[in-house]
User: What shape does this take?
Amino acid sequence: MLISQNSGILFEYAGVAEWQTRKTKDLVIAFRSWKFESSRPHLLEEVVNAASFFAREINEVKELAGDDK
Assistant: This one.
């Protein structure tokens, strides 16, 4: 495939990845700044979920970029 055909998709994924990076960083900072309490286990789960989502998005972008070679 030509890069021009996928550029819109790649820009969309790049935007999602950028947003997810900021969200993940914010969650990690929040998690580190608060002492972990048993009443807040959802915070750790949220950090893990955000990081997993981010990793999947990056892998999809890499796969799309690989199609252009």
Observations:
- Residues 3-33 form the longest helix (31 residues).
- The mean pLDDT is 68.
- The helical segments are 3-33, 41-67.
- The chain has two helices and no strands.
